[in-house]
Amino acid sequence: MKRIIALAAATLLLAGCKTSDAEEKETLRISAAASLMDVVAALEPVFTELHPDTELVINYGSSTKLRAQIEQGAPFDLFLSASSADMDKVADAGLIDADTVIPFAENGLVLVSADTVDGDVTDLLRNPEGNIAVGQPDSVPLGIYTKESLAAAGLWDGLDGHLVYGKDARQVLTYAESGNADLGIVYQSDAAISEKVEVVGKLPSGDTPIVYPAGVAEQAENQAAAEAFIEVLTGDEGRKVIENHGFALPEGGK
């Protein structure tokens, strides 16, 4: 009987230890642009190995949508944006510690298709024969960059009636991969990781560079972990992952 009681007590003690360990685990809440999904996934085990007591909770979406969530009070510790404009807005509103903002990647735009397509990008867009998937031009950074690029080249207005809009960069890629759109305009990083589309050609650069900044919340509950993730992101391992996923390093980043 005494042995049974001792075993029960030991079991309760172990259970209490496990509960205590779980309670001690911290959370790092990251709001990240959808186009960074694979980069963050690749860096998650690197970060976890260095910080095993911190659990990552990641919210993906278009940077403009994430910015709106932040402005409406959504909890977060770290914002990884595909748009300097969206980062600037939350920093100007006092929601991001401006001293922590740092660019960590750059990107470009390409025209892709699930089928083999011959022809010059300009000619294909000037005389479209099917649907073209693009990001929402008023609310998604990919769409904003796309409209700016094509408008500067005199190609945007001619696409009326041929456009299929995606809510974020990954949805645009999915439309092109599935053939729901004949062509798609996506980030070069998304094209690099896709095995279902071929790059037809590059789009001309717009006036706004496609720069990805990171920034820590002004009222971060886990500021130390947020800063530690930025260190991983901008360190040797992070730069390697960024380049391996089709991004470019920001000027002076090598």
CATH topology of the largest domain: D-Maltodextrin-Binding Protein, domain 2
Give the number of DSSP strands: 10
Q: Report the CATH architecture of the largest domain.
A: 3-Layer(aba) Sandwich
Write out the strand line-up for the largest beta sheet, numbering strands in chain order.
2-1-3-10-4
Keywords: Metal-binding, Molybdenum, Signal
Signal peptide: 1-22
Pfam families: SBP_bac_11 (PF13531)
GO biological process, one term: molybdate ion transport
Structure notes:
Helix 2 (about 35-50) links the parallel strand 1 and strand 2. The protein contains 10 helices and 10 strands. The strands form 2 sheets. It has a 5-stranded mixed beta sheet with strand order 2-1-3-10-4, with helices on both faces. A 5-stranded mixed beta sheet has the order 7-6-8-5-9. About 45% of the residues lie in helices and about 20% in strands. It is of the alpha/beta class and about 250 residues long. The longest helix is centred in the N-terminal third of the chain and has 23 residues, at about 1-25. The model is unreliable at about 1-20 (pLDDT under 50). The protein folds into 2 domains: about 1-105 and about 210-245, Periplasmic binding protein-like II (D-Maltodextrin-Binding Protein, domain 2), CATH 3.40.190.10; about 110-200, 3-Layer(aba) Sandwich (D-Maltodextrin-Binding Protein, domain 2). The protein starts with a helix and ends in a 10-residue tail after the last helix. Keywords: Metal-binding, Molybdenum, Signal. This is Molybdate transport system substrate-binding protein.
